[in-house]
Amino acid sequence: MMAYIAVYSTCFAFTAMETFAYKKSQVWAIICGIFLILFAGLRGDIDCDYAAYKEMFFYANSLFSYHKMLDSFSAMRVEPGYGLFIVICKTISKQSVFLFLGTALLAVSFNIRAFIRYTPLPMLAVLIYASHAYWYKDFITIRAGLASGILLFTIQPLMERRLLRFLLIVGFATTIQMSAAIFLLAWLATRSNFNSRSISVALFISALLGQTGVPVALIKLGLKLNILPQIISIYFEWDIFNYSISLINPTVIKTLLVCFLIIWKRSWVIKSRLRIVICNMYIIGACWLMIMSGFAILAARGAALFFVVEPIIITGIVYTYRKYYFMPIILFVYFCIFVLNLYKLPLEPYKLFTSNHTYSLPIFEEKP
Question: What is the DSSP string of 103-129?
């Protein structure tokens, strides 16, 4: 696990130099972004989803083989947008490393761009990102990482209340991962009348609904009546996905702490249209997480789409309220989150991609 610690320590060191001086440095954020891209993109088989993405790449055909390319979409069993991306990568090279490297390049770059554009301390935002979201998305569910990166482009349309542009971006993200359609709820973030009391009530009701199990029961009823996509039923059949999230789950606790910060510093939030939008987005994600807590996979995937703005929120509050004790607390909390994820995530010791184990897959039969 030393490789993971080394990468995180590099981000931590750059963050310490930036944040204790409270001076914005785009260069450090870009350098760390390059490290994160290469670390995720050049990895070998170290996570549970790696083989599935290699299978998709195996069945893809080049853009120059038009008819075979169309046939490969059904074999890949993936959303059309990401399927096209796989085909493009296959056209460039028959080495599957290009798929992982290309996905990491886009996903991480989109996050770094947003941090540089919307935060006063981009390196602290990178560190927060590298403490949690980076490992779950850009290492395991890499389509979710790319879709979440695309959804960061909705911040400006939400601020300007440009519905058509917002819908186009969400629609495009949905072609990468279907669950991105949940992000349509983010349009509620354009409302500015979410005061501290209404936020508290919404969180309480969401937690109450989630613990009663009513939302999960309604989902099962929708599947039985064929109202909802039947693909959801697969997750109910697998024990690895069919479990609930308790209110003492570390992710829920961290989410509630961020919500508490938003409520506590409401006077900071209402001074900027950007802050109103991203904080409302986060509250919507927190409510989704707790309402769907009886169905962990749906709760986590939906909430993670809204939580992409967490680094922007935390860095904004830290920069504005420069208390001598605030920065060490934030660094310590996210260091603990990283350590927890390091031992919790289904990641094997890091190993680099090797060409002789990339394209020839013995578990698959040769294509005719």
Answer: HHHHHHHHHHHHHHHH-S-HHHHHHHH
Helix (H, G, I), strand (E, B) or coil at 190: helix
Which residues, listed in sequence order, are joined to residue 352 by a DSSP beta bridge?
Answer: 43
User: In Å, what is the CA distance from 77 to each residue of 86, 217, 282, 331?
Assistant: 12, 28, 31, 41
DSSP class of 134:
H
Residue 158 identity:
L
| pLDDT tens-place string over residues 221-231 | 887 887 777 66
**C-alpha–C-alpha distance, residues 116 and 268, integer Å:** 20
Cα–Cα separations (whole angstroms), residue 185 to 72, 88, 145, 258, 354: 33, 31, 19, 20, 42
DSSP 263-300: HHTHHHHTT-HHHHHHHHHHHHHHHHHHHTTTSHHHHH
**Residue holding tokens 């961290």?**
254
- Percentage above 90 pLDDT, the chain: 42
DSSP state of 185: G
